[in-house]
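Quick one from the shared queue. A colleague (R.T.) flagged Cytochrome c oxidase assembly protein COX20, mitochondrial as missing a structural entry in our internal table.

Convert sequence to structure tokens.
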Amino acid sequence: MTEEGGKNQDMKVMGILDIQNTPCARESILHGAGGSLVAGLVHFLATSRVKRSFDVGVAGFILTTLGSWFYCRYNNAKLRIQQRIIQDSIKNKVIYEGTNLDPTRKKTGDQ
């Protein structure tokens, strides 16, 4: 994050998850924090039980974080696959353009 004495300080959660370089990590943790706040607060307002509301908040954090993480990673993987297909299509278009194998070339009767 900042450079102090030539060392790059990365932002890590609990020392294990580098949220700057891991795709979807920051958004998932922020969604989880919001989900835990909503779940705990709604449970507290409904029951007025502090310890149980805290437990519901922690469960809300875990479920919301994991749900957001998997949803984001799935969409990123789908996007990478689509990009790879488009890149291959562009590469094939460049290779076959102007040849008899060009699928966009109009076929005439004498060919």
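Strands lie at 3-4, 7-8, 12-13, 17-18.
The first helix runs from residue 25 to 47.
Added to the table.
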